[in-house]
């Protein structure tokens, strides 16, 4: 059984340079602090310590004035994968808000030239028509798309609106989508989305442990067992979040599907 953490970025100096200790997201998990910086070798050793066989390194790029101001280059993601091809799976990060033409070209370069396995981006509105060239290119390249969705509340139609993802999943039925952070605050909507759309997976990274995520956990037992991926969201939660995940009220069969089988199927192992 190959245990996969579907969202874990190495806390190397190259990656952590974009996330200083006072970055807001380090306050999301009580008791979890900025992990500091370490080597890529130490990150892989830490995976060993918690019993994780491989991590999906989802790249991230926020671009201002033509340069990356948050995240890392896809060349760096690819370099990490080249050093540990059996332990890391690289997904390109692209900026979908500034220049979709450039983002689409970068996606093609990352997959064809750097041999990355998917793409990850942070859409303000997943169903914005300006994102469609990216989805079309991902479908052409036959790679999955990770949508980073935040726990936004109070705004109908925001990035954490499952209906927006549903529209995109309907328009691109052959494209696989992974909705990241989708366990809270609207877990039932994303459960329904994953149940309804065969091309939609969800991970609950960080929020799967929050009060109110109980419907997500209950549905992961049987209703959407084959559509849930385990993810820690390291460095914004600890890698040993997998121990807390294993302590959730899930059967051994459901846990094995979520931490191993589903990711292997999605990544065509």
Automatic annotation (TrEMBL):
Signal peptide: none annotated. GO terms for molecular function: carboxy-lyase activity; hydrolase activity. Keywords: Hydrolase, Lyase. InterPro entries: ACMSD, Amidohydro-rel, Metal_Hydrolase. Residues 47-267 form the Amidohydrolase-related domain. Gene3D superfamilies: Metal-dependent hydrolases. PANTHER family: 2-AMINO-3-CARBOXYLMUCONATE-6-SEMIALDEHYDE DECARBOXYLASE, CATALYTIC_ HYDROLASE. This is Amidohydrolase family protein. It comes from Halomarina oriensis.
